[in-house]
Protein: Helix-turn-helix domain-containing protein
Amino acid sequence: MLSSQAGEEWLSLREAADMLGMHPATVRLWADRNELPSRRTSGGHRRFRRADIEARLRQEAEPRPNAASQLLIQSVLGRVRFAFTDGTINTMPWCQHFNDAARDAFRHLGRRVLDLLLRALNDRTDKEELRSEAVQLGKEYGTITCNSHVPVADAVRAFLYFHTLLDESVLQLAEIRGGREQDIPWVESLYQIQAITNEILPALIEAAQNSNCQN
Structure:
């Protein structure tokens, strides 16, 4: 084990592998791919900072999203992309009141809603924090609605259209994958989604109707 002049503790390949619980060959491969920082001694031996190994251990310990919930989010994204590419969105009467900037802003916020839902479905965030973030997203939806001169009713219709794509994805995946042990409880997921969207929509309406919105 070596120490640098700055007081950093360096580990040999074997020591780093033991800390990570990996075979040295795997750690060597990570270093070759620059997935794990390392340096070489004058003799050509690899050395790893203890701080980098500990950071990797923390990263590996973080809970990862359930594969089924990730599939749900990807399904929704696929439906949204298809609706844009095949022109379905453009046939909706409410869409005519959205300029390009408003459409892009709504798409961006929609992606953030999906990220919020992914966290909710994996129990990674406190419920009150999720609720607070949902309200903030709703306010941003409303502000964009007001500043883009989109009728509030059409903004609501746009959000409900997005919500319908969510519901359709949940129901389809529940039918296809509902019996698999590692999947999320699909009926419960609907309630979790509703708990978030039920906070977003009122906040959208309130912010859109706010007389202080910039014109």
In short: The longest helix spans residues 152-177. Residues 1-5 have pLDDT under 50 and may be disordered. The CA atoms of residues 130 and 214 lie 28 Å apart. The chain is about 65% helix and 5% strand.
